[in-house]
Amino acid sequence: MEHYVANDSLKFSTVELTLFYNFKILFKEWDESEFNL
User: Fold this and answer.
1) 13 vs 4, 23, 27, CA distance in Å?
2) Per-residue burial over 3-17, b = 16 or more CB atoms within 10 Å of its CB, e = otherwise
3) Secondary structure of the chain: what % helix, strand, coil (to 5)?
4) 24: three-class secondary structure by DSSP
5) For the segment 14-35, what is each residue's pLDDT rounded down to a tens digit?
6) CB-based contact 37:30 (threshold 8 Å)
7) Structure letter (DSSP) for residue 31
8) In terms of domain of life, where is this protein from (predicted)?
């Protein structure tokens, strides 16, 4: 991945990635649990 974004944009995208992976893990845990939504 190329580093062509500014520090502020990189920080913002990093926060988005963190939220994305947190939700991804959360939904993964829900999917593997007994109750499937």
Assistant:
1) 12, 15, 21
2) eeeeeeeeeeeeeee
3) 70, 0, 30
4) helix
5) 888 888 888 888 888 877 776 5
6) yes
7) H
8) Bacteria
Residues making up the chain, counted from first to last: 37
The rounded distance, in Å, linking the Cα atoms of 37 and 25 is: 15
Structure pTM?
0.41
Which residue, chain included where needed, has tokens 């499937």? Answer: 36
Q: Which pair of tokens denotes residue 10?
A: 């990189």
Q: Which amino acid is at 9?
A: S
Tokens at residue 23, please?
Answer: 């939700």
